[in-house]
Amino acid sequence: MPTVAEFPARGLTGRALRRYVEAKLLPHVETPAQYAGGELNQTVKDHAAARVKVALAFPDTYAMGMSSTGYRILHHVWNLREDYLCERVFAPWPDMEARMREHGVPLFSLETYTPIRSFDVLAFSCAYEMGFTNILTMLDLAGIPLKASERTLDDPFVIFGGHTAFAPEPVADYIDAFCIGEGEELALDVTEKLDELKRAGLPREEILLRLCREVPGVYVPRFYGFQYFPDGSIADVVPLAARVPFPVKRRIVHDLENAPFPTKQIVPYVEAVFDRYSIEIMRGCVNGCRFCQAGMITRTQRQRSVEKVIELAKKGYEETGYDEIGLLSLSSSDYYGITELATRLNDYFEEKGVSIGLPSLRMNEVLATLPKELARVRKGGLTIAPEAATERMRNIINKPVKDEHLIAAVREAFKHGFDHVKLYFMLGLPGETDADLRAIGEFSDKISLLRTELGKSPAKVSSSVSSFVPKAGTPFQWAPMLTREEWRRRQQLIVKSSRIKAVRVKVHDPDVSYLEGVFSRGDRRLGAAIEAAWRAGARFDGWDEHLKLEVWNAAFQAHGIDPDWIALRERPLHEILPWVAVNDTVSEQFLKRELKRAEQGRITESCADTNPAKEAPCFICDGCERSPLWDKKEELLAAPVKGEARDARYAKNWQLTPGAHAAAAGSGD
User: Fold this and answer.
1) For residue 653, is it within any domain?
2) Using 50, 70 and 90 to split pLDDT, how confident is the model at 12?
């Protein structure tokens, strides 16, 4: 595969590079506007005056990246510093990549067409494992050595953040430093420290070592070594340098109310996946769904006040002109005051023709109060995530929501003119039976027929059924995953269980979910296979039409990797998991107790209530320091919990330190 370094066009930059790209490349590629830059509200700074230059990379398309609220927040945070600049870069679609290689055009930033290799920091924001090969594409097109160990001080520091940083090992060979946790403060701490140490004239290795030691939340994989048992499981993870943290402490933003948030958001030329002005009204979640990584790694829950959200909404509308405002969180109907917020926003924006959207709703008693407000400007669809269609399965996954709450909300929506409902379900969850799967189609039909109570035709119902993939930091991280054949069988069962023409059931490609499972559960031995598959043409693996599973199978075989062993098997509770070095979210004991409760079909109440007038229970998950029982934490963790200890063998391992795992495993425990 030729690299851009072999072509003379690599020397072009700025306006000269822009003119060349506009003349030679953009007329011949799909959606050329995604590479043009120059959008409303873009920030352009003087490179000569900038103390630190950051290229913020999203390893997927422009349309996907510009829909990411986290990506927008980081771009805003870096540019708030007058002496910093941050410019955007996205993964080029295969047709654009081919043209860039043909013409020797380096990967460039959208704002100024500056080659990415000229920046001080290349920061990847990555929320999905299926972008891993795109990271290699972007490094290669930029002319940056793929392997972190081969880079010099002439190369940018390559950092990586986002939810996938909580299971970082598959791409550990290619990243200088992972940022663990929330980025508003961590991003600036990392770049400030890198700038300080680089200006001090230190060698690259020393810079990274001090970064790891001195900035909480930073994981530098070269300073951690993995040891393995003969069967391939991890025997131990050993720090390779003195005073590096183990585990790395995640960073959270305690004061969300005053955290920076971009109101002057860039308005894309190309329609983004979510084409709206979005406000993060709440971060974290208290409900403890046992499959949900985002809910576990972002604990504890923090809210912006109603007044603050309204202020951000007004400023954002003035700066962007969007006709839809999305109120974002993991579960917006859990926001304390959501009805008041929706009402007040509608009171202000209704005459302007601006609608209010709530894209993530939980089936609770608040749900039925929302359709009236959501319908005041325009009637779209109601989007709800039951996740499972039977009460038994919802108990297993700890989502004890009631059908009657959803039915009441849908009835109310239909009364106000809604004619479409979108439902999200999962299949392959632990404990699932065929009866639970058939219930998905039957439940969808029931929702559709509710509209006939008004003397109208059945409502359109879109039921999206995703495949369960065990994720790091959740109670189900030890659970097995289905084979692709079994996924397909269960998908057909669901599709056939719906008998109403107005109901459309959409399932995910099992091959994509299978590969996601390999990446989610693997360690750094996967790195060589990822590079081999990339060199053989793997790109945009999360897109059904681009996934080349035969390429991946060949890469796994060539490097002696059994992907089934990584993705499908159930992990014993004493096994060291690949993400142990960054496993500082909720406690391992809490996760194991939750797994046991799942096996028993037992519910764990929400750990806190966003209503300040109510007293909240606490289950000592170790996710926050605001628990009323925090001063008794050690005593409570040591005490047995009646009916919840898996057995003596596993209970003993709840308290093992990482270095003690090998001894326990070797002794047969």
Assistant:
1) no
2) confident
Strand-pair category, 302-303 with 282-283 = antiparallel
Q: Which residue, of 191, 216, 241, is where some domain finishes?
A: 216
pLDDT of residue 412: 84
Rounded Cα distance between 177 and 159, Å, is: 5
Mean of pLDDT values over 452-463: 94
What digits encode the pLDDT tens for the residues 16-28?
Answer: 999 999 999 999 9
Percent of the chain surpassing pLDDT 90: 73
- Look at residue 310 and tell me if it is in a domain: yes
What CATH number is associated with residue 452?
A: 3.20.20.70
Q: How far apart (Å, rounded) are the C-alpha atoms in residues 153 and 151?
A: 7
The letter for the amino acid at 457 is: S
Looking at 199, 216, 233, the residue that finishes a domain is 216
CATH at 52: 3.40.50.280
Nearest to 244 by CA among 220, 275, 260, 268: 220
Rg (CA), the chain: 25
Structural domain count of the chain: 2
Q: ∠ CA(94), CA(100), CA(105), 5° rounding?
A: 150
Alpha-carbon span 450 to 122, nearest angstrom: 51
The contacts of residue 378 (CB under 8 Å, 6+ apart) are 355
Q: Are residues 172 and 316 in the same domain?
A: no
The answer to pTM > 0.85 is yes
Cα–Cα distance, 579 to 591 (Å, whole number): 14
Residues 562-597 pLDDT 10s: 999 999 999 999 999 999 999 877 888 899 999 999
Q: Does residue 190 share a domain with residue 287?
A: no
d(CA 643, CA 600): 10
Domain membership of residue 313 as a residue range: 277-508
Place of tokens 């096994």: 575
Q: Sheet of 177-179: strands edge to edge?
A: 84-90, 52-58, 121-125, 157-161, 177-179, 218-219
Q: How confident is the model at residue 371 (pLDDT cuts 50, 70, 90)?
A: low
Residue 636 located in a structural domain = no
Q: How confident is the model at residue 97 (pLDDT cuts 50, 70, 90)?
A: very high
Q: Taking each helix axis as running N to C, give the angle between helix 484-497 and helix 434-449, from 0 to 180 degrees, rounded to the nearest 10.
A: 30
